[in-house]
Amino acid sequence: MTPPGLARTSGFYFFLFFAFGAHLPFWPIWLKDRGLTETEIGTYTAAAIALRVAMGFAVPLAADRAGAPRRALALLALLTSLAFLAHLAAGTPGGLLLTTLLAAAAVAGIAPIADALSLRAAAQGGFAYSTARSAGSAAFLIANILCGLAIARFGSNAALWWIVLSLLPCVWLGLTHPGGAGAPLPRPRLADAAALLRHPVVLLTMLAGASIQGSHAVLYTYGSIHWRAAGIGDGTIGALWAFSVLLEVLLMFFAGRRLIRRLTPAGAMALAGAAGVLRWSLMAADPAAIWLWPLQALHALTFTAAYLGAVAMVERIAPASLGATAQGLVGATAVGVAMAGGGLAAAAAYPAWGAGAYWIAAAFSLTGLGAAALLLRLKV
């Protein structure tokens, strides 16, 4: 029998990441087909990331203070869908920048609010949060494949409509999210939110999670480019990415809860940091193509263990009334800053160092490992 709340919680993540799975790989193609240059695309993307960093804290805080996370989730999903639809009416670069920023502002708060609600739903329904979240990773992988095929047949507008339509079910699923059932939570004060920024465990969790996730910036920015330059075919490159996401899904679905219970959240982040040091140090050696498969398999640890550990740590230390705010602070804001910093560092290092730029990623992971080790010593 399916635990109460699991289907709708999983459904929300499925449709949200069904949209993300089209946006991440294919949105730059849509912008380029609208006449933007590579420089403009990079500038718009950077502006969107900067706005998401700020709004990823401010929007969940507003939702917590209003005591209406489900309504906020539904509204943000609707506004994000409409913002992407508005791109069709933006006929100038300035108009496209405006709609890009509107979409970034709307989408920034969705994941933190959804995570807080989903953790509460999991506790109430007796299911593993990681099981529900794995539906999102699976949807991301499916969308990568199917949206690519749709673009090949119908053009890049298929990506826009894919995003717009995928977000619409999130409106209803957000409004009826099982994590919002039960007695309402007390509304936090601004002083309570400010206290999070002074909490040493919160700060260490931010540093650990952001550093380990930020270590992926080199791979996300230059991985495919470097592999193609090394003579690896596009089909193999796509398979390498799909393979890493598949293992992410499997770990979340089958072992996510046990991983956190056995290692503790801090232990899971420490494992991710150690795996990252190993993964990126070996990537810096520019290994032959055959070795890329086991190195991509480590994504199940460098991403998934770090993500689940950070989410579980926040749930453990933050008051329930500030659940979305804390998830946004650790996830959207801290990780956003780290990803931006890692991307800038990669852009500076890769032209000169090539695969040696992965030493930057190894340094990020080592930093995260150190922060996680301190959390382990605190026995949180």
Write the element-wise H/E pattern from the N-terminal end onward.
Answer: HHHHHHHHHHHHHHH
Name the average pLDDT.
93
Radius of gyration from the alpha-carbon trace, in angstroms: 20 Å
Distance between the termini: 34 Å
Q: Architecture of the largest domain, according to CATH?
A: Up-down Bundle
CATH superfamily of the largest domain: MFS general substrate transporter like domains
CATH topology of the largest domain: Growth Hormone, Chain: A
CATH domain class name of the largest domain: Mainly Alpha
| Low confidence ranges | none
Strand content: under 5%
Number of individual domains: 2
Largest sheet: none
Short description:
Its main location: membrane. With 380 residues, the protein is an all-alpha fold.
Report on the structure:
By secondary structure, this protein is mainly alpha-helical. It has 2 domains: 7-180, Growth Hormone, Chain: A, CATH 1.20.1250.20; 192-380, MFS general substrate transporter like domains (Growth Hormone, Chain: A), CATH 1.20.1250.20. Helices cover 83% and strands 0% of the residues. The chain contains 15 helices and no strands. The chain has helices at residues 6-33, 38-66, 69-86, 93-107, 110-125, 129-154, 157-175, 190-196, 200-214, 217-229, 234-284, 289-297, 299-317, 323-353, 358-378. Helix 6 (129-154) packs antiparallel against helix 7, helix 11 (234-284) packs across helix 13 and helix 13 runs antiparallel to helix 14. The longest helix is centred in the C-terminal third of the chain and has 51 residues, at 234-284. It is globular, with a radius of gyration of 20 Å. The two termini are 34 Å apart. Keywords: Cell inner membrane, Cell membrane, Membrane, Transmembrane, Transmembrane helix, Transport. It is a multi-pass membrane protein. This is MFS transporter. It is found in: Cell inner membrane. It comes from Pikeienuella piscinae.
